Amino acid sequence: MKKSSEIQALIADLKSQHKEISKERDELEQLLRTINRQLFDSENQLRLAQAKEAEEDYLRSLAPDFNDPEFQLLLEALRSTPQFQSLRDFQREGLAKILWRYLIETSPTHTGSRGFINADDAGLGKTLTTVAFLATLEALENNTTNEQKEVAA
Fold first, then answer.
1. 129 touches 118 (CB < 8 A)
2. What's the whole-model pTM score?
């Protein structure tokens, strides 16, 4: 009988240990899920931060550096054109940005993206800015042609 009660005590002890081990296992699984979720969130946050940084770098590469000497020369040249005078300040800035992108993209050393999106709120003069851009291109082409004629003469 003594052995039977010892065996039952051992079985009860093993059951108790099994419950404790199961409880610890469940706690560890929950902790692992929490860690995985935090790691996943951290990785996503890192990816989002890297994507945002890449997007900001790309947008900076598209926008003119207003302190760039070449951009300042472009603005000086634009200020003398009648189409530039008739624009509002924000339209002048838009025209300068479009011309800047055009000049960058038509340069022989440019290897980046092509194109420009002229977009803003409704009624801010996108059509007028685009027409001014085309008129400025025509004026630049005429000036280049006249300068070439003068050099040839």
1. yes
2. 0.47
